[in-house]
Structures are given as structure tokens and as C-alpha cells.
Amino acid sequence: MSDKTTLSKGKHGGRASVDAQPAAVAAAVDPRLLVREKGFAGYISEVKRKLRGGELGSLPVIVGLIIIWTIFQLKNDIFLSSSNMTTISYYLSATGMIALGLVFVLLLGEIDLSVASISGLSAAIFAVFATTHGMNPWLALLLTVLSGVIIGAIQGFFFAKIGVPAFVVTLAGNLGWNGLMLWILGDTGSLSIQDKGPIHILSQNSFFLDSDVAGAYILATLGVAALLAGSLVEQTRRRKAGIPFRPTSEIIVRVVALAIVGYVVAYVLNKTSGIPNVLVIFLAALVICDFVLRRTTFGRKVFAVGGSIEAARRAGINVAAIRMAVFSISGGFAAVGGLFLAGETRTATLGAGTGNLLMLAIAAAVIGGTSLFGGRGNVWSALLGMLVIQSITTGLDLLNMSTSLQYMITAAVLLAAVVVDSVARRTQKASGRA
Q1: How far is the C-alpha of 203 from the C-alpha of 276, rounded, in Å?
Q2: What SS3 state is found at 411?
Q3: Tens digit of each residue's pLDDT (9 = 90 or more) over 201-252
Q4: Domain span holding position 235
Q5: Inside any domain, residue 303
Q6: Residue 239 and residue 290 share a domain
Q7: Is-contact 303 293, C-beta < 8 A?
């Protein structure tokens, strides 16, 4: 039936409003769903739309990282050397792993102040199992990570079921788990850990495929192949479903961009020793968590709860279960981060989990682009944020600057990230997208 016939009947039979409704709905389709049908022109239009609407993504931190690297390289030409890049890539992984768990909590709009203490406690637990009791180190590793998950679940229970604010629960945990660590370590205040098993893999002198220069290139190739395969599978699936999909040209550009970055990084790191094992594990965790958040029902529920608790409840989401699961994830990653830190020194000490570790982990997630207000961010912010923080720390060390200056600069960067996040959120509200 033609539109003319429909309108004619509408004048006499009152059907115009009914028949016009589907046309109105079709005209109101979100343009973001159709952008890829226009190819690169549509993609550029979408980027411009996001920037105008305050959806900056990782752009600010990438620009900031380029500026930081440029300044330090001009001050000291050793900064971008292979050995220094290897140092940065190694030392960012432990705190980055803790920040990765914090990303899940921040997506809910909450905070976990206990992760640093959990990391220190986990190192002590592993040392007791593996050193004092002579347990198989891999079994000790499993039990240690499980203990972090259980600790997170306990805190999540008080928050989700009892209703105690997360700030209070995790602040109490920060004190309590630190006290438990002191009790476990006893009068000696430290326990040595043998350089074998998982601790050897996490040590500073352990590299992917035993320092084989091909290791970094193999890893880069696997990453490029995974992106290409995943993109083509998604394109085929969306094409069959009759919904917008990425054009092949865009997929090729994305794959080539990743290949350039991956092989350049591999080349730089191979000039010294290769890619550290801890960075490989960290990257693998990022890929898995990214898949969980973007491609699974659980991930969509996390974003839904972080966006609006009431809307999530009305959609049938078990908000309490999601909250407990997220805090369990945070506790588990804090335990893994603690093992990473133990691998650096092969000891569990009273100083583990203290100092500025908590602040750096939170700062990494926020600087990387995860919103403090919940509902917006991704796991790659843990990597980007730690790249910024560790670059600042290492660069200032090369220039023989004091620790106090490092703290002040990191604080300024953190404040800038929060300001950008707040302005972006305000812009999104003004444009009706928040």
C-alpha cells in the first residue's frame, strides 16, 4: 500500500496516526547504527559526533602519553631506548593488574580501597604456603588467588546484601587485611620465596619464550591474527543478521594499525631481552576481560548496573549478585598483582601493599579513561593509565628528580583526568547522551 493511500485513508478513517507510526520509528533510528554503511566517511562523521558529545574515549590519555614521551626523550635520549622501555613494561604490570580489577568496580560507580592490602596479604599467604609449608608452588598460587576472590566476595556481601557503603567496607578491609598480613609474617617481618615455579616466571629476568627474540614477534603475530579473525567473524555474523557491520576496508586499517604498533614494540623490546613474561600475562588478562565486558551477558549487566541501578533492577538484573561478583573479581586481581610484586623481590615483606600502591592503582584506571561516576570505561584504561604513571616515574628517575616531584606530577595528571571526565560527562548530559 502506498504512502498516499495510507494518508488518504487517514483523513477519513483515522488510520494516519497508526500507519505513520512505523515510518516515524524508522526515521528515528539511531544514526550510530547506520554509520558503517557509509564507509570511512561515516566513520569520520561518527568520530566527530562523539567528540562534540563529550565521548572522548582514550584520546586524552594517548595525547598525554605522546607529550610525556616527547618531553622525557628531549631531556634524556635514553628514555625511549630498548632497555628503558623494557623496564617500563615490566614494572607497570603488577600495579596494572590491580588496576584492572579496579576497573570493574569503577564501572559500578563504586570504589575498592582494600586492593593494596589484599595484594600484600596474598604475597604473605603464598610465602607461607610455598616456603613455610613446602606446598607445590602452583597449588599455592591457586589457593592464593582463591583467597583474594573470597576476600572480595566477603566485602561484596557486606556492600550488596547488608547495605554498608563500599567506601566503608573496603576502608575497613584495607586496615583489617593489612593487620592480618602483619600477623602472618610474624616477628621476622618478611619471608623469602624460592625463585622457581610461578615466582620465577614473574621475575624480572624471565622473558616470553626464554628470551628468544622471536617471542615478541610471535606474540605480535598472534594479536594481529586474533583481531583479523575476530573482526571477520563478527562482520559475517552481523551481515547474516541484516544489521550494520564494519566494512572490510575498515577492518584492514585496524589490523594494519595494530600490526605496526605490535611489531614496532616487538622490535624495540627485542633489542634488549624480549618481552617480559609479566607483560604477556597482563596483556592476556586484558584481552580476556575485554571480551567478558563487551561480549558477554555478564559484561552488559555490569555496565547496566553502573549506568542506572533502578533501570537494571527493572530489567530483571540481580544487582546484588553483580556487585558481589565485581568485588570478587577485584579481590582476585589484587591477589595476582600481589604475586607480581612478590616476583619482583622474591620476598613477602611488611611493606607489601603499603605506600602509594593503592593510589597508583586507582589513578591508573581513572587516568586511562574509566569514569569515577560509573557506567563508562574499558579494561584497556588500566594499561594506558599505567603507561602514563610508569613513564612519569621512570622519566623522572632518569633525570634524578625527587620522589616528592613524582607524586606531585602524578597527582596533577590524575586531577586533569578527573576534570576531563567531569567535563565530558557534563557535555554528554547537555547533548542528551548521559
Answers
A1: 9
A2: helix
A3: 888 887 787 656 677 888 889 999 998 998 888 888 888 888 877 788 888 9
A4: 207-273
A5: yes
A6: no
A7: yes
Where residue 149 sits, what CATH number does that domain have? 1.10.3470
pLDDT band with cut points at 50, 70 and 90 for residue 61: confident
Q: Is residue 30 part of a domain?
A: no
* Model confidence pLDDT, tens digit, residues 289-348: 999 998 899 999 999 999 888 999 999 999 999 999 999 999 999 999 999 999 888 888
Phi, psi dihedrals of residue 409, rounded to the nearest 5°: -70, -45
- For residues 276-285, one letter each, b for 16 or more C-beta atoms within 10 angstroms of the residue's C-beta and e for the rest, the string is bbbbbbbbeb
* Rounded Cα–Cα distance for residues 183 and 137 (Å): 22
- Tens of pLDDT, residue by residue over 148-171, are 999 999 999 999 999 999 999 999
Burial of 17 (0-12, 13-18, 19+ CB in 10 A): exposed
Q: How many domains does the chain have?
A: 2
Is there a domain that residue 49 lies in? no
In this structure, are 319 and 265 located in the same domain? no
- Strands, E assignment, 132-198: 190-192
Cell numbers representing residue 383 in the block: 594499561
- Taking the C-alpha atoms of residue 87 and residue 230, their distance in angstroms, rounded to an integer, is 32
